Amino acid sequence: MTIYDNEISSLDGTPNALEALKGQTTLIVNVASQCGLTPQYAQLEELQKDYSDRGFTVFGVPCNQFGAQEPGSPDEIASFCSTNYGVTFPMSEKVEVNGPGRHPLYQALVTTADADGRDGDIQWNFEKFLINGDGEVVARFAPTTVPDDPAVVSAIESLLA
To answer: Would you name the residues annotated as active-site residues?
Structure first.
């Protein structure tokens, strides 16, 4: 089973949002619009622009579980991201990433440990998972690790052709 086997709709409600990402290197990030880490959207979009032509995409996953920092509707989330950060990367429906309502995608993701050996529950908004083109999780990065951190960029580049 790969990450692509988890069904999740896009922000606009289109089913099977991960299907279009098969074969791409993907950075999956749980996102929120009203968080102190929200400016990471700008760096995520830069990664999207810098590497999309090499088989890479960011995949944003809105979540309202941390301080109710993503309260908006799908239209409000899309508008916020586009207007404030020029986001062009795909985004999913809003889901839960922890607890009994944890989405199956995150049930699969949280079994991967970060560089410090920490696995399990998502710590906060903007935790990042790097997925190779075969749908396997190859790295996990803490919420405070910015998207343009050399470790993140190096890991992405190591998977690109």
So the answer is: 35
Sign, Cα dihedral of 119, 145, 130, 121: positive
CATH of 28-159, one of 3.90.1170.50, 3.40.30.10, 3.40.50.2300, 3.20.20.150: 3.40.30.10
Q: How many CB atoms lie within 10 A of CB 86?
A: 13
The 10s digit of each residue's pLDDT in 103-152 is 999 999 999 999 999 999 999 999 999 999 999 999 999 999 999 999 99
Q: Residue ranges of the domains in the chain?
A: 28-159
Note the pLDDT of residue 137. 96
pLDDT-derived band at 2 (thresholds 50, 70, 90) equals: confident
